[in-house]
Each structure stands twice: as C-alpha cells, then as structure tokens.
C-alpha cells in the first residue's frame, strides 16, 4: 500500500523535513530509531513524523529527546504501517482513533482539532492542516511535491 511519510525536526533555525524509510520498519522500535536518527542529524529537540496511507488513515508520532514516542492514529488498523503504530495508539478498537490527540498542543494543534481532523478530513488534507498549525508547512510542501 502506498504511503507518504515525512519527519520534521525542530532546530535553532526552524523545522527541517526529511523522508524516512518506513518500508523497512518491522517494529515500532524501528520507527522510533528513525526518528532518533533524524533528531541527531539535525540536532533537533523535537521530532514529528506525519504519515498517511492511501488516504485511508493518518498518523502523527512525536519524539522529544530520549523519551518514548507518542502517537495519534486517525484509524487504528492491524496491518502494514498502521499495525506498527497500533502499539503506540494504546487499546483503541479497530477502525477507531487511538493514541494521544494532545501530543502537538504545544505546537498549536489542539487535541480537539486533531481529533476533528481524524473524523472529518481526508488524511492528506489533515496532514496539510497539521503542518500549517505546527509551523512546518513549507517543509511539508517541499517533501510532498
């Protein structure tokens, strides 16, 4: 299944975006390792992964420093990339949203807004909105094109 994924690292100069290699990820630890690599390469403190698959669902994963990653997934699934993120989404039922919708509040994306995007927007449109609100829309557009 085709997907779009981008990692954004906050640096002293602003946000820097890169494209991760999630096709090779076999576990949520592999995803977290890629986020940590992006943080080290850009000397970033916060790292945010935005991912959407086939305009079916989207996910946001955040890693701060050496902490554990947190995630919000618009629609929990058991297969593919969504299956990897399910572990971070907690005990949500299949087809329901899961995880921490408040993970980007300090970046301007309220829990209510993220939840609304999961309920009412196409995943690709939701990610555009998240990028705009969080302040890395320019980098998102560069990677999306």
Structure description:
The chain has 145 residues and is of the alpha+beta class. The protein contains 5 helices and 6 strands; from the N terminus they run E-E-H-E-E-E-H-E-H-H-H. It has helices at 28-42, 80-89, 111-120, 123-134, 137-144; strands at residues 3-11, 14-18, 46-53, 57-64, 70-73, 98-99. It has a 6-stranded antiparallel sheet, with helices on both faces. A hairpin with a 2-residue loop joins strand 1 and strand 2 (14-18). Helix 4 packs antiparallel against helix 5 (137-144). The longest helix has 15 residues, at 28-42. The radius of gyration is 14 Å and the shape is globular. The mean pLDDT is 90. This is tRNA adenosine deaminase-associated protein. InterPro entries: tRNA_Adeno_NH3ase_assoc_put (IPR023869).
List keywords for this structure.
single chain; 145 residues; alpha+beta; 6-stranded antiparallel β-sheet; 5 helices; 38% helix
The number of distinct helices, counting runs of at least 4 residues, comes to 5
State the end-to-end CA separation: 19 Å
Shape: globular
Strand order of the largest sheet: 2-1-3-4-5-6
Fraction of residues in helix: 25-40%
The average pLDDT is 90
Q: What is the H/E string?
A: EEHEEEHEHHH
Number of strands: 6
Low-pLDDT runs: none
- Largest sheet geometry: 6 strands, antiparallel
Given helix and strand content, the structural type is alpha+beta
Number of spatially distinct domains: 1
Strand content: 15-25%
Rg, alpha carbons: 14 Å
């Amino acid at each position: 299944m085709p997907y779009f994924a981008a990692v954004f690292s906050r640096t002293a100069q602003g946000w820097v975006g890169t494209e991760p290699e999630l096709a090779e990820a076999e576990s949520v630890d592999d995803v977290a390792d890629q986020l940590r690599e992006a943080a080290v390469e850009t000397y970033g403190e916060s790292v945010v992964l935005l991912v959407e698959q086939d305009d079916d669902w989207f996910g946001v994963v955040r890693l701060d420093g050496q902490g554990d990653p947190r995630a919000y997934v618009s629609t929990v699934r058991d297969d593919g990339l969504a299956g990897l993120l399910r572990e971070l989404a907690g005990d949500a039922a299949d087809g329901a949203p899961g995880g921490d919708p408040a993970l980007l509040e300090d970046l301007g994306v309220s829990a209510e807004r993220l939840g609304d995007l999961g309920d009412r927007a196409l995943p690709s449109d939701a990610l555009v909105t998240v990028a705009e609100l969080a302040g890395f829309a320019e980098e998102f557009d560069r990677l999306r094109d």
